């Protein structure tokens, strides 16, 4: 016997994500899902951003990694609440993992929750965790072919930060190709070209983020 | 790699449906997967075979219908469908003012069940 069961496969995840979003909204917390390949500079960007904006917004961070607590220690040193999730092999965070962690976060004392996803250019794009904005990083050294090879994350993000711009003279990378390809993939995507190591080009990102948080 | 998560989500919905409706065995599970959804059908096949054991669907086949990417162009006013996973311009008129209307599906469609119990 054939039975019609028309359901979204990620319905359970999406439902939990919606609950997370509501729980955060009730506390007045804006949530960012920060995604990139491993080593693109998520933690460095986050350190810079928290340091620059902590006078205006109270940050909290959930760190997703397959293993280890390195990133959480870096963020914790900035004096903001941080929780480390070790996925023990899973390639992305899902809504359920975040839902388990929310009670551990002092949400009453936060304005912004940043979820630093597992370093991976593919899977995190697929899973809503309850964020208000998806933000992604691409480091220049990953190559100018990445937007067309891994389009989904570029299409689902609101902002793209191209990091390691200080390496441009040393790399065989066509920045014009990156600019053109991401615009074709996602005309709405906000593009920021920065060097998190040197601290260059970050002011427009801080301005955009501050306005996005308040919206 | 997230195909395993997708397979486990499918099996969760299947298990719950069978529990609610009293189905004892599932012979096949049909899903619709958009070409632009980021899911590889071969990987999903493999993940499903790994994840199904011990569930009500442990003998079930997964039947995957791939949904092509399609859209509607505001420049020429026509609908289109393409073989690629991504569209950069309307294949009919070259315009860029188009909306994607299909290709992102991740849906369970149908179960074939043994209802003899």
Plain-language structure description:
The complex is a heterodimer of chains A (215) and B (117). Chain A has 215 residues and is an alpha/beta fold. Chain A has one domain: Rossmann fold, CATH 3.40.50. Chain A has helices at residues 11-26, 42-53, 70-76, 95-101, 146-149, 151-156, 175-185, 203-214, and strands spanning 2-8, 30-35, 59-65, 82-86, 112-116, 133-139, 159-163, 190-193. With 117 residues, chain B is α+β, with helices and mostly antiparallel strands. In chain B, strand 3 (69-73) and strand 4 form a beta hairpin.
Task: Provide the descriptors you would attach to this structure in a database record.
A: alpha/beta; Rossmann fold; 8 helices; 35% helix; B: 117 residues; alpha+beta; hypothetical protein PF0899 fold; 3-stranded mixed β-sheet; 2 helices; 26% helix; elongated
Give a brief outline of the structure.
Chain A is α/β, with parallel strands linked by helices and 215 residues long.
> What is the makeup of the main sheet of chain B?
3 strands, mixed
How do the helices and strands follow one another from N- to C-terminus of chain B? Answer: HEHEEEEE
Shape of chain B: elongated
The proportion of residues forming helix of chain B, as a percent range, comes to: 25-40%
Q: What is the CATH superfamily of chain A?
A: P-loop containing nucleotide triphosphate hydrolases
The tally of structural domains of chain B comes to 1
Strand content of chain B: 25-35%
């Amino acid at each position: 016997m054939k039975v019609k069961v028309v359901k979204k496969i990620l319905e359970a995840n999406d439902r939990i994500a919606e609950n997370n979003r509501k729980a955060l909204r009730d506390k007045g917390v804006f949530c960012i899902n920060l995604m990139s390949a491993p080593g693109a500079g998520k933690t460095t960007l986050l350190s810079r951003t928290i340091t620059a904006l902590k006078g205006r917004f109270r940050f909290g961070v959930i760190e997703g990694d397959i293993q280890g607590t390195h990133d959480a220690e870096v963020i914790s040193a900035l004096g903001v609440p941080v929780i480390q999730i070790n996925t023990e092999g899973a390639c992305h965070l899902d809504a359920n993992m975040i839902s388990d962690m929310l009670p551990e976060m002092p949400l009453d004392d936060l304005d912004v929750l940043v979820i630093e996803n597992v370093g991976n250019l593919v899977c995190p794009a697929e899973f809503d965790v309850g964020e208000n904005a998806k933000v992604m990083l691409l480091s220049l050294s990953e190559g100018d072919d990445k937007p067309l090879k891994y389009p989904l994350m570029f299409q689902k993000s609101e902002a793209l930060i191209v990091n390691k711009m200080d390496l441009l003279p040393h790399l065989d990378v066509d920045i014009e190709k990156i600019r053109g390809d991401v615009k074709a993939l996602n005309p709405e995507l906000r593009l920021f070209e920065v060097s998190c190591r040197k601290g260059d080009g970050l002011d427009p990102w801080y301005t955009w983020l501050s306005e996005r948080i308040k919206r | 790699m997230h195909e395993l998560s997708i397979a486990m989500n499918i099996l969760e919905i299947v298990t719950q449906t069978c529990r609610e409706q009293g189905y004892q065995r599932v012979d096949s599970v049909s899903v619709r997967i958009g070409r632009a959804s980021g899911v590889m059908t071969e990987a999903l096949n493999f993940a499903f075979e790994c994840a199904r054991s011990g569930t009500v669907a442990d003998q079930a086949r997964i039947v995957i219908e791939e949904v092509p990417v399609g859209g509607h162009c505001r420049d020429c006013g026509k609908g289109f469908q393409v073989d690629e996973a991504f569209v950069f311009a309307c294949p009919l008129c070259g315009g860029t003012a188009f909306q994607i209307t299909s290709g992102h599906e991740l849906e369970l469609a149908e179960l074939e069940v043994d209802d003899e119990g």
